[in-house]
Write a structure and sequence with these properties.
With 645 residues, the chain is of the alpha/beta class. It is built from 23 helices and 22 strands.
Length: 645
């Protein structure tokens, strides 16, 4: 009964709306035709009395034609050019009907010229009626601002790079809501490289020039903010635009990606700061030819370190491969809970189990393997902060090496199909506990693959720093810049390789499908980035000057850090794979399984009493030269590390 009543109320409301708008449109037609007819018969002896019948006919049929063209079903407050075209088609159809009606009588009730020329005022009148709210809202906002004296003292003057659809959308939003986002914006114009757009107008603003004129335009128009509004711009093109923008004192921002905006529906920001991902501009190939993902599809997947940066992204991406069960393992209770909650909210159909466990506890892991029988393991759990592990090396060896031993041996015992270790570029010629522990884990998996009698395919994946991870330099610089500085850089020549978290996880999954056992893979990361250049660029992108507005200080290289990271040893052979961003590394023969395993276990057991002799033993397992060992030991003595308890 209530449902029927609601339907009747909705129907009555629709009828009232149709009647109201229909009467308004009919009046627009009457006024337009009468005005056109008056102009036509001015200073003539034409008889016009019969023309009123034709005008009445036009007024009567107009609402029905408009209804057929869905003119009464549009949200005109947020309409675009498509709706204007819809109005023109409807008025043109109405004009054609009236033209045929008038032409069928003799004498004609309306001159055909009146019918044709009336199309223009009718179309304009109907459009004005529809867009009256948008026009009046602009005047209303300005009147209220003047009356209440709410204008800010200074508005942010915006120059928009890109006079395309994205630039138009940005201009519309800033113009329609100039003070919605906490800042008063004033658009000064557009910049675009298309010669055909030069000196033309878009949304009422002129295209002032091309990208190479940006520095002059910023000075001429006193620009505070340059907004780059070009969708899916290539990385080289983006960097070239930035090179011109960075010659100015203006802040530089970009429009968010459309997909990012959809994912972050809680955010109403139309602009965001330039991120390092924009400069790198690399996109992982989701499913390239030559890689079969059947090895991870519909499988029981175990991800260790599931609450970490890489582990959590692996979990999110594994959803795309329809796992029969996804196992999230971590010893971080809060992080694990947040990750489980997020995945369940996004994918309620996902079969998933969150496991609070420590990879150094073999008894706990055994229960997990016995209960869930994982088929593929992504081992991302590890201690990764180099300076912290230099201070507490025993903990690094216990977790990184001891945890990997437990997982690898259980993987063989429970016949896990694939085991993928997340490694690092710091494993090459390591001078840190973190790098050495990861290199030993790589050697362990190679040894197990070569000497073990089992069906598990072991592989390691090396890559550099991931953007946005906890402890990463980019978030640190961002916080320091927002705090007014100083920005701290360890060494002016320090360089690092960077990779985005989604791309790293994507490539790790691809490597898991490529391996035939005992492989070490390296992800292609492009050119290394000088950290000082990165800091200076991040400062400039926010419209400030390095050294003047934001100070940069050098703190010195910390224990275990290298000036430049390396990607492979000189004795390692690099071969391409079927994936464009993954190469395979082939090294020397590895130690026999039992000997290496025994040495690693002894190293972990002796870790609490770590001393120079134990360090020699650790590096001896890696067959490193005595000079490297001595350098490492001397570094530790200089920094007076505290023993782990």
């Amino acid at each position: 009964m209530n449902r029927s009543r609601e339907m009747m109320v909705d129907f009555a409301s629709a009828i009232r709306q149709f009647a109201t708008l229909g009467i308004i449109d009919a009046l627009v037609v009457v006024v337009s035709y009468a005005a056109t007819l008056s102009v036509r018969v001015w200073n003539t002896s034409l008889e016009v009395s019969s023309g009123f019948y034709a005008i009445a006919f036009a007024a009567i049929i107009t609402p029905f034609i408009f209804y057929a063209f869905h003119i009464y079903h549009c949200i005109w407050e947020h309409s675009s050019g498509a709706e204007v075209a819809r109005i023109f088609r409807a008025t043109a159809t109405m004009t054609a009907v009236v033209f045929i009606f008038s032409a069928s009588f003799s004498p004609r009730p309306l001159p055909l010229s009146v019918v044709l020329f009336s199309l223009i005022p009718v179309t304009c009148g109907v459009a004005v009626v529809r867009y009256r709210r948008r026009v009046l809202s602009g005047f209303s906002w300005r009147w209220k601002a003047i009356w209440n004296q709410e204008f800010p003292t200074l508005a942010t003057r915006v120059l928009i790079m890109g006079a395309g659809e994205s630039g138009q959308l940005l201009a519309m939003r800033l113009k329609r809501h100039p003070n919605t986002y906490g800042t008063q914006y004033t658009i000064v114009g557009f910049v675009d490289d298309d010669p055909k757009k030069q000196r033309l107008y878009l949304e009422g603003y002129r295209v002032l020039g091309t990208r190479d004129q940006i520095p002059d335009l910023v000075d001429t128009f006193d620009v505070d903010l340059i907004a780059i509004a070009i969708h899916r711009i290539s990385s080289p093109d983006f960097r070239d635009i930035l090179s011109y923008c960075e010659k100015t004192s203006a802040r530089i921002m970009v429009i968010p990606d459309v997909l990012d905006a959809m994912k972050n529906q809680h955010s109403n920001k139309v602009l965001r700061d330039v991120q390092l991902e924009d400069l790198i501009g690399r996109h992982a190939v989701s499913k390239p030819d030559g890689v079969s993902f059947e090895h991870v599809e519909n499988k029981v997947i175990l991800v260790t370190g599931a609450a970490g940066s890489i582990g959590s992204e692996l979990c999110r991406q594994m959803v795309n491969y329809n796992p029969s069960r996804l196992l999230l393992l971590d010893n971080n209770e809060s992080g694990l809970y947040d990750m489980e909650t997020d995945l369940r909210a996004r994918h309620p159909e996902l079969c998933m189990t969150a496991i609070l466990a420590d990879i150094t506890r073999e008894d706990s892991l055994r229960k997990v393997f016995a209960e869930h029988r994982p088929q593929v393991i992504f081992h991302a759990a590890a201690y990764k902060h180099v300076p912290m592990l230099e201070k507490y090396p025993a903990e690094g060896l216990r977790v990184n090496i001891g945890g990997t031993i437990n997982l690898a041996l259980l993987a063989m015992e429970f016949q896990v199909a694939r085991f993928i270790l997340i490694s690092t570029d710091k494993a090459i010629k390591p001078i840190s506990v973190m790098g050495a522990s990861k290199r030993l884990c790589e050697e362990l998996l190679r040894s197990l693959a070569e000497w073990g009698h089992h069906d598990t395919l072991f592989a390691s994946v090396r890559f550099g720093n991931v953007l946005g991870s906890r402890g990463s330099v980019v978030p640190l610089f961002t916080r320091q810049i927002e705090a007014g500085g100083p920005v701290t850089v360890t060494h002016p020549d320090m360089t690092r390789y960077f990779l985005s978290i989604p791309e790293a996880a994507n490539l790790v999954i691809a490597a898991a499908c490529l391996t035939t056992g005992g492989d070490t893979y390296l992800l292609k990361m492009g050119e290394s980035v000088r950290i000082l250049d990165l800091a200076e660029r991040m400062i400039r992108l926010r419209g400030m000057r390095p050294g003047a507005d934001i100070e940069i200080t050098f703190t010195g290289v910390r224990p275990g850090e290298k000036i430049r990271e390396e990607l492979f040893n000189q004795d390692e052979e690099i071969t391409e794979t079927s994936h464009p961003y993954i190469v395979k590394i082939k090294g020397d023969a590895v130690a026999e399984r039992a000997g290496l395993l025994e040495g690693l276990r002894r190293l972990v057991d002796h870790a609490p009493a770590l001393n120079g002799q134990a360090l020699d033993e650790m590096y001896g397992l890696l067959h490193l030269e005595s000079q490297t060992i001595q350098h490492y030991n001397n570094g530790h003595k200089r920094h007076n590390r505290e023993p782990s308890t």
